[in-house]
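Predict the 3D structure for this chain.
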Amino acid sequence: MHSTHGYLISEFLSPLANTRTDEYGGSLENRMRFPLEIVSAVREVWPRERAMGSKISGTDFAEGGWTPDEAVVYARELKRLGCDYVTVSGGGVVLDAKVPTGPGYQVPYAERVRRDSAITTGSVGLISDPHQAEEIVASGKADYVSLARGMLFDPRWPWHAAVALGADVKYPPQYERAHPKAWPPGREVKSS
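Done. Predicted structure below.
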């Protein structure tokens, strides 16, 4: 379930968008009410043996907006209701947000949510280098990394990352001759 980037659920969660004065606005508990009702309803019909998760905001990147502390509370509630994982992203609620982009710029929010909520947590945020992705997971900042732009640019990113990290990948038979080990000598792909 998508709870970030200014879509409906994140509009309920963010105090910048949610200016309601009823039981669905104001306090964090009230702002989380509708999103958690959705999660509960989905969990009732979604098979327990299949993973269910949510993409959440770590921050709105704007003063007076959604905070990392609120992200932790929301992630705890999601876990309590049966969510198996969250992917932490952020922003998108207001147009004038000051987003400090750069490789891994959202990783600290995922790290905080993972540490303080104990839910399986993924990170995003201009992660495109295989070594960077590996460091994020190996150091415990996140349980997994989700790629967007990197995969749009290179749909074979996982294969290329495996080569760069020295791992071996089993290719489907029709792709075996594309494996760098099958290239003529002197034309091999060099891992960085």
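The first helix runs from residue 8 to 13.
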